[in-house]
Give the backbone structure.
Amino acid sequence: MEVAIQVQVEQLPEGVFLATSEEVPGLVAQGRTIAEALEIAGDVAKKLIEARRGRDDNHNFPGASERRNYTIVVAA
């Protein structure tokens, strides 16, 4: 099953990128690039979700086909 998770990425003063998610508590990943941070975040999220399922915690994540995110740019 695939799930859609919102991940926020910020660049730290040291130059590395930090990925976190409010939807998956405990998800923290760091990479030298945004792509690396997101790749690591995916691995961490998978492990956290599997651990949660193993404890029978009924946290439902939205399926990948259920969520659509869009970004708009507005001149202000």
